[in-house]
Design goal:
6 helices; mainly alpha; 148 residues
């Protein structure tokens, strides 16, 4: 990535902000899914068909689960930094677009394939949208070129 193309923002800054935002997404998502939506997830897990399991052992499965929020955060930060538009409105629009293409589409596929009940998919998708939209207004302050 070249600084000029990325709006003057260094790769280190892009990665640092992405990691920080990904951590925030993971923490808030974990709290929301494990406290607010616990009963929904328990019901969904109780309905899992016998023989269906993740292909990895527990710890690896948990780490893979956390990875998506870091990917979403990197997409938001990198796309925002790459744009000439650096407004809060653009950040909110971008957050919605990344959510729709990443989270919304993912859960639609999971429901359509019968892997997840629609109720929990809608609730956890909306949780992710709320998290993205809360974080979006911070992007202009977090992703800025260094002062010269």
């Amino acid at each position: 990535m070249d600084r000029e193309r990325e709006g003057g923002v260094s790769l280190g800054r892009l990665l640092g902000v992405s990691l920080g935002l990904g951590l925030v997404f993971n923490v808030i998502g974990w709290v929301g899914n494990n406290l607010l939506l616990e009963a929904d997830w328990d019901a969904a897990n109780a309905g899992v068909k016998a023989g269906f399991a993740a292909p990895w052992p527990g710890l690896v499965r948990e780490l893979v689960t956390l990875l998506s929020d870091f990917i979403y955060a990197f997409a938001l930060v990198w796309l925002f930094a790459s744009s000439a538009r650096r407004s809060v409105l653009f950040a909110v629009q971008l957050a919605f677009a990344v959510w729709a293409v990443g989270v919304g589409l993912l859960y639609l596929v999971l429901v359509n394939a019968g892997f997840l009940p629609a109720g929990v998919a809608v609730k956890t998708s909306l949780l992710a949208l709320i998290i993205f939209l809360i974080a979006a207004p911070a992007l202009p302050a977090l992703v800025r070129p260094p002062r010269r």
